[in-house]
UniProtKB/TrEMBL annotation, chains A, B:
Gene Ontology MF term list: DNA-binding transcription factor activity; transcription cis-regulatory region binding
Biological classification of the source: Bacteria, Bacillati, Actinomycetota, Actinomycetes, Kitasatosporales
InterPro entries tied to this protein: DNA-bd_HTH_TetR-type_CS, Homeodomain-like_sf, HTH-type_TetR-like_transc_reg, HTH_TetR, Tet_transcr_reg_TetR-rel_C_sf, TetR_C_27
Gene3D superfamilies: Tetracycline Repressor, domain 2
Keyword Transcription regulation: yes
Swiss-Prot/TrEMBL keywords: DNA-binding, Transcription, Transcription regulation
Domain of life: Bacteria
Stretches assigned to the HTH tetR-type domain: 7-67
Protein name: TetR family transcriptional regulator
Keyword match Transcription: yes
Positions of the DNA-binding region: 30-49
Length: 199, 199
DNA sequence: CAGCTGACAGATTTCAATATCTGTCATTCC
DNA sequence: GGAATGACAGATATTGAAATCTGTCAGCTG
């Protein structure tokens, strides 16, 4: 128990919660554990988060936001043509998820449980943010005449859903298999060709 | 307990197993239950199926094969052009799964558990059969000059994986949502356009 | 007095004893 | 004699009592 006499903030609680989740897993990580890790009573934790699930949602959002930020850089890249940006963006999403899943499977499994719990709220918002990023790229490509697309938002949604297998944690086990890279390329090729074609 | 004095066959055991699964669900459906439903001792069931999981695999295969057969009709349809056949085949796959999921959610959940159990064996073979059917259509379209595709088998795999969300039981809950039809159309449009485009 | 504590009620989880199930096989039955 | 039985050992599941956890709040503390 490291009491660390600093003031108790939401931020410090989130850090401790991550650590407890990493150690105990999602099923056995309790609010009491988090409080103990911080050297405070569990009542203090409830001062910053109304419920245990609010705390879990906040931790999950934090984890997902790291990926959102990473990808934002590609949306903003000014020197890349739209087709390359679509490819790089989807490849970066796949690579980010895959790296996490392979580097620390147990932690990834923990967050997979958390995302399943919070599918309607936190994950829904995350997916909206991501498809908004994609929409931005598709819109730019349409404006530049590179893509022929009726409604960029609808097409961005289709791109995102067509690549579910390469970012949905449900498929994480597939990402270890030898052929995945090629499978991803095949899907991506088909989709990008679909963007280019005349309506 | 209907003893039905006919001879005990693998077929009759499979029918009884389906019934027990429907009534009890996957967790509580035991070999003893199946034997009781048939009015025989459980030892007799083991004469036809080496293990409980062999029995479950056989029932699952039966269920999946019904879909395979249904779709085979579209592959063989001689009066349809390749693009229509791709669209109809994927639409029929989605419709078949969706119908089952909405008509009897509990039974569908039961079979979802069974398919998860048998992912490596029975489901793997099922997916191979389905992608083989798709490959056939893509090959025909390529031969006819309608599609421009390097390797029909690879492209068929990409088509199948890009539409995972519309046939993988994992997404069954999404199939109730209002917008799904449109989402499916958007993905399908993008993919079909990708098939048509020049390499 | 703002922040923290710890005791509390009700909900959930754990654990160990008990019951049931799986898979085998010597024996029985037509 | 080929098919079916049922007793059995080890594995798995169920159950209910005890332990722990969640969320609240009156009171302590600096």
């Amino acid at each position: 128990m490291p009491p660390t006499s600093e003031t108790l903030t939401a931020e410090r609680i989130l850090e401790a919660t991550e650590e407890v989740l990493r150690r105990h897993g999602p099923a056995k990580a309790t609010v009491v554990d988090v409080a103990r890790a911080l050297g405070v009573s569990h009542g203090s934790v409830y001062r910053h988060f109304r419920t245990k699930s609010a705390l879990r949602e906040a931790v999950t959002k934090r984890w997902l936001d790291r990926t959102t930020e990473l990808l934002a850089a590609i949306v903003a890249a000014p020197d890349l043509d739209p087709e390359t940006r679509v490819r790089e963006w989807l490849a970066a999403l796949f690579a980010a998820k895959r790296r996490k899943a392979l580097a620390d499977p147990e932690l990834f499994a923990t967050y997979s449980v958390l995302t399943t719990e919070t599918a309607e709220t936190v994950v829904g918002a995350h997916i909206t943010e991501l498809t908004d990023q994609l929409t931005e790229i598709v819109r730019a490509g349409t404006a530049a005449g590179t893509f022929t697309v009726d409604d960029p938002a609808v097409t961005a949604g289709a791109l995102f859903r067509a690549t579910d297998r390469f970012h949905d944690p449900h498929y994480a086990r597939e990402w270890e298999r030898p052929g995945v890279e090629g499978e991803f390329e095949a899907v991506l090729d088909l989709l990008v060709r679909g963007l280019r074609a005349a309506a």
